[in-house]
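Researcher: Structure prediction, please.
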Amino acid sequence: MAKCDICQKGQLFGNQVSHSHRRSNKAWKPNIRTVKAVVDGTPKTLHVCTNCLKSGRVSRA
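Model: Predicted structure follows.
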């Protein structure tokens, strides 16, 4: 569950390149938190990234 319910930010894939320029697969995961938030007047559990929490897109219950 590495996806934000608000902004749909998800996992990114790419290559990790070492100093000797050898490549290996790498996954960057967003910082997801489980938060109780108010949605349509009722508290609901959401998976939200910390960027959405800091910007105020989610009102916590």
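Model: The mean pLDDT is 95.
Researcher: Thanks, that helps.
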